């Protein structure tokens, strides 16, 4: 584990962000780390999937995994010990919304789709140019920062959706919508953790409580109702999206 500080009279005094690079091939690792540090990013390095987890910390309950000091993860797919897809799946399944860019020698459409389905945000096929990599990183970081909830006074805002926790009120495109208490609680949970993937079981625990006796279809039904109230086209949701095999995420 080592840190490559931005060297060479870095273009910016303030770091643009911290990137965790998980790559076992030394040449690629060094080239990417150098390119990013020259752009002003701080680069953290892990040579395999297992040591990438050294940068994570477990918070709240033991089921939650966060990367408090990492703004973006660049993840190779073919890695010793824990491969990139499994690592990505684990990170998302345990609730971290850190942006992930997958690097892979495999370029087939299937791999790309699988990568995005396990919760990666973008995908780059080797060989790639450093300029393209840097541009993708910049875009991902910008998108992620924009997705962070903006708390204005006592409201949570995401694009055209504003939730007022104290008043139990939600407006969508400047119009107030009527939500049931459960729908409101679900939306509040999503908006407080943008891009975090929630499994049905996690949503049940947080919204209905541990004593809930119904089944997880209840969650799907509530999500459908929320979509009908919020989305422009509920059949092609833009806010509340399905992460196949995992659950749902907002933003
Ligand atoms: Ca590799």
How many structural domains are formed by the residues?
2
> What's the count of strands?
16
Low-confidence stretches: 5-14
Overall outline: globular
User: How are helices and strands ordered from N to C?
Assistant: EEHEHEEEHEHEHEEEEEHEHHEE
Any ligands, ions or cofactors bound here, and which?
calcium ion
Using brief descriptors, characterize the structure shown.
251 residues; alpha/beta; Rossmann fold; Arc Repressor Mutant, subunit A; 2 domains; 6-stranded mixed beta sheet; 5-stranded antiparallel beta sheet; 8 helices; 16 strands; 24% strand; binds calcium ion
Kindly summarize this structure in a few lines:
By secondary structure, this protein is α/β, with parallel strands linked by helices. It is 35% helix and 24% strand.
Q: Can you tell me about this structure?
A:
With 251 residues, the protein is α/β, with parallel strands linked by helices. It folds into 2 domains: 2-147, 3-Layer(aba) Sandwich (Rossmann fold), CATH 3.40.50; 150-250, Orthogonal Bundle (Arc Repressor Mutant, subunit A), CATH 1.10.10. 35% of the residues lie in helices and 24% in strands. The protein has helices at residues 26-38, 49-52, 84-93, 109-117, 130-147, 181-192, 200-208, 217-230; strands spanning 2-4, 18-22, 42-46, 57-59, 64-66, 72-76, 100-104, 122-125, 150-152, 155-158, 161-164, 169-172, 175-177, 197-198, 240-243, 247-250. Helix 3 (84-93) links the parallel strand 6 (72-76) and strand 7 (100-104). 32% of the residues are buried. Bound molecules: calcium ion. Calcium ion (CA) is lined by residues 24-25, 76, 78-79. Calcium ion binds at residues 24-25, 76, 78-79.
